[in-house]
Structures are given as structure tokens and as C-alpha cells.
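Researcher: First entry.
Model:
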Amino acid sequence: PSLVVAISGVVIPMVTFYYVGITLGFPINTAVFYGLVFAATSVSITVEVLQEYQKVRTKIGTVILGAAVADDVLAVLLLSFFMSSAGASSHLVMQVGLQILFLVFLVFSVKLLVPKLYDWSQHIPYFERETFLALLICLTWSLLAWSVGMSSVIGAFFAGLAV
């Protein structure tokens, strides 16, 4: 249910603000940009409202929070793809392909690589090893995101989700 709500939470504002932009006479790129910007939600406000009504740990609270997080992830990804493809020409397919490969790498890294890195780091006699490892992952993923034409913030965002 969270994914359906999240997709709706991205598609509805995106389409609405796209048509508002077109109606107001903005170029297509600007209208798409407005739609993508307004597709992102504020998870912190959602959490505060759910906490106020003591619904965070209920089934509906879980669905709402899952949808809010998934909604933000989808909006950030779409905005990143849009921004990286703006002004691109013949290499657009290759660039989007690299970005998709990067996202696949992130999924596998979260499942396989990050837990192994944390297990391995337990043997290092350094008192801030978790912080060091989190920063290393954040900076590495930021650099990788930048190298495939995405904003480095995307890499940092997913590193934050991973750790």
C-alpha cells in the first residue's frame, strides 16, 4: 500500500503542476521542473502530525510514513534524472543508462556491501569507526553519483538511507 500511495503522491502533484505551468505559458521544461519540485513531501511534518495523534506505530501510520519516504525518494530520483538530462544531446541514453546502473549498484551495496563493511570495521581499534565508515560511504557515493552525471547530493542522500 505504501508504494501505491507514494507513486500517487508523486504523479498527482507532478501532473497537476505540469498543467498549471503549461496553462500559465511556461515552457515544457519549466513546467516539468515545477511538477517535480512540488512532488517532494516533508517527512518531518508527517512524523510530527502522526506523533501528535499517537498514530506513528499503527498500521496506517506505517503506511503513511513508508509512502512519504518512498515519495521523497522517487521525487529526488526523477528530479535528478531531469536535471542531468537538461541540455543533454546524443549521449542522453548512455547517461541515463549509467545512472540506472549506479542505482542498481546502490541497491546491491545496501544489501551486501555496507553490512560487510560494518562487520569488517568492528575489528579496527578506532573509537569513531562507525562515523568514519559513514562518512566514507557518503563521500564515495557522492563522488560516484557526480561521476555518472547526477547531483552528488543523490549519492549522499542514499548513503544516509544506507547507514
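Researcher: Second entry.
Model:
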Amino acid sequence: MGKEAQLLRPKVNVSSYIHFLLNYRNKFKEQQPNTFLGFKEFSRKCSEKWKSISKHEKAKYEALAKLDKARYQEEMMNYPGRRRRRRRKRDPLAPRRPPSSFLLFCQEHYPHLKRENPNWSVVQVAKATGKMWASTSSNEKQPYEQRAAFLRAKYQEDLKEYHKQCKARKGSKGLAKKYRQETCLPSMSVEEHARLCTDKAGFHEHKTQANAHLLNGDRPGTTDFYNTVKVLATHGNADLIAPSAPRLMRPFSDLATS
């Protein structure tokens, strides 16, 4: 993001308390211009004043905060430098994080609450479950906590095994690449290709090797094969090429003249 985009970025909205603090600071400067207060002392005074004001006075600052939030959201919608964060894709082979004791409790009681209150939303059911969990005694919570501890230990073991498999997969990819590089057909001159492919059997063998390298993603072997085809087309040995030429190959006349 450039400097211009940063300068144009909308100012972040602030809370009702910050609106009160800014107003209180301006009034304090007007009433006591010669008095200096440190940051810590001034913050303490603001906090005490905020606690002492009535709900009616606080409502004014809360309204300012809502307006400020609406302003910020509207400006961000039109902000050109806005970027959405890309969510990192989860590896399907990775083990899932274990649920907490509270989540295990929710999973057990959710169907019962939903059955008794079919019109409740997910949020309402979650609030009711939270109240039930808060009122549950320590002895009643113990089975859920033990189950959660067991699942955490299992998750750690699965995670170690998953990391080992990831390292093994990376190692196997590296070995496969090294093998392809070591076994790749050596680069040959045009004359050497012509000598190797003087008969149909030699041409077919060379083509089979080149196609194997093409499947493995090794370009040098494939290039050697195309060079051979070009030589044969130039010297008029089209009878060796035609029966086995790959579908992606250019016309022989183009090869001969290029």
C-alpha cells in the first residue's frame, strides 16, 4: 500500500468513553489552562468522572460513538485501498483441534434445548447453555474436563504424526526431483541424434525414453527427441517419423524449415 493510500485511509471510529475523554480534556484545558497533569493522573480523573456521570449523560456519548462507527463503515466501503484477507486453506490431512470441556457440554445439551425450544436461534441456545455451564458444580464439570484432557493428549500425538508425514512427503518430492535430474537424457548434438535414429527400432526406443521424461516433467529429454525429429525431417527420413510422431508435434515441413 502506497503513502497516498495510507493518507486517504478513513480514521478509525472510537468508543463512547474516548468521546467523553476528548470532551473532558478540552473543558479541562479551558477551565485550568495553567494546570498540568501527567497522563496517569489525568486518566485516573477521567475514569472517576466517567463513573460518576448519569446514564442520561452517557447516552449522549454512546450516540456519538454509534454515529462515528456508521461513518467509519461507510468510508471503508468506498476506500480504494481496502483488501480482503485471504483465508488460509486447511490441510484436509491435518488433525482437527480438540473441543474444550465447555464445548463438549454444549454438544451434549444442545439437542435437548433445541427440542424444548424449537423457535430459539443458535445465539439463544448458546446463551442458555452458557448459563447452565456457569451454574454447574465442579464435580459435575469433571467428566467433561477429563474427556477434554484425553482429546487434547490424543490431538498432540496426532499432530506429531502429521508433522512427520509432512516431512516425509517433502523428502520424497525432493528425492523424485533429484532422480529425474540424474536420469535425464543427456544433451546431444544434432549429428548424434541422426546417428542414433538411423533405423525405426532406434527411433522408437529414443521416442519412448523422451515420452517418459515428458511425463516426469523433464524437458531436456523431450527437447532431444524433437531435435532428432528435426534432423530426420531435414534428411528426408519421414518414414521413420510418421508412424510414431506425437500429437503435439508441429508439421514436419515446419520442423525441416525452422
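Model: Note on the second entry: The radius of gyration is 37 Å.
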